[in-house]
Amino acid sequence: MEPSPLSPDHDQENSCPQISPGEQHTDTLFVQARHTVVALGSMLAYTFRSPVESYHGFAPTLHELTMGLMGSSFQPDRDIVDLTGKVIFVTGGNTGLGKEAILQLARHGPSRIYMGARDERKARDAITSIQSTLSSSVDIRHLPLDLSSFDSIRTASEIFTSECDRLDILMLNAGTLGNQAVTTEAGHEIQFGTNHVGHFLLAKLLLPTLLNTAALSPSPDVRVVTLASTASGTSPPFDIMTSATRLMAETTLHRYAASKAANILFASELARRHPNIMSVSVHPGVVKSDLYDRATTSPVLRYPLQIIGLAMRSVRTGALNQLWAAGADRELLENGAYYTPIGVIWRNNQYVVDVALGKKLWDWTDAEVRKFGF
């Protein structure tokens, strides 16, 4: 089922003035322009509040800036640990960062990789493309998954647990950006519902398998890597974040920011509740990927994003931070932390340190999915 918009109240009285399509289009452009100015203003304000974190979120790393002369580097072929026998699950794995992550992880001997994706044809094409670049075949399986649908998430988790009794790396990579103000089937704003609530439910259903895998070793190395964003710095507060009606009154970029703030809160809270699972959130940088496709269809957002696109990372370099979190030596990571590229920790990030808010959002989200029997 496609996400449906909240139904607004319409005044049906005949005396209401009729608005021509041209006037409606002009009004829509005006609203979009105003929303864009507000959102960009919020991002600029965040940049002034947190200049160093913003720099690391948007600018090249020191290693990139000096063309390898300074700073630390991360090379997946060299630095990802041996993954022999391990099972990996990547959401949104058929394109962009997720596909690149699967490609690089597949080169280190995992037992199996699950590619969570909605479109079967695209997933099959992605698997074929990945296999063609590997020196030896790896067991990569498509798992149908629509994170805006609780039924799809339930089915995906049931298929996974029927086929696998272990899960070593769960990469919550999928995301959506720049959507219209619509809701998921469960009634959550589409970006918040997909990027946060959907991933929360998937992680909840797979948590027993993650915990069982961690219990198999006295020195467990089970990881959950959640993709976040520095856009989280412009998120509206909790009471707006968790109200579909109020959140949908915000700009599309603020709605996205809310979902990314929730991703950081979730990752840190998971680490506090289950310290034997390494749970971190990562910002990949500003990456030229399919995520921006929907946003660039807006006549207002198109040109600002095209300008920003000149400084965007490629998918190959954009995937390095999540690959570092998933595959670097475990001792390099700090549980519950938030990282900007590549492996730069931000211990004082507002959503990492706000323990009360992390618990509050976890409990709220858990109550939301419980309404549907989860």
UniProtKB/TrEMBL annotation:
<keyword id="KW-0560">Oxidoreductase</keyword>
<feature type="region of interest" description="Disordered">
    <location>
        <begin position="1"/>
        <end position="23"/>
    </location>
</feature>
<comment type="similarity">
    <text>Belongs to the short-chain dehydrogenases/reductases (SDR) family.</text>
</comment>
<dbReference type="InterPro" id="IPR036291">
    <property type="entry name" value="NAD(P)-bd_dom_sf"/>
</dbReference>
<dbReference type="Pfam" id="PF00106">
    <property type="entry name" value="adh_short"/>
</dbReference>
<protein>
    <recommendedName>
        <fullName>Short-chain dehydrogenase/reductase family protein</fullName>
    </recommendedName>
</protein>
<dbReference type="GO" id="GO:0016491">
    <property type="term" value="F:oxidoreductase activity"/>
</dbReference>
<feature type="compositionally biased region" description="Polar residues">
    <location>
        <begin position="14"/>
        <end position="23"/>
    </location>
</feature>
<dbReference type="InterPro" id="IPR002347">
    <property type="entry name" value="SDR_fam"/>
</dbReference>
<keyword id="KW-0521">NADP</keyword>
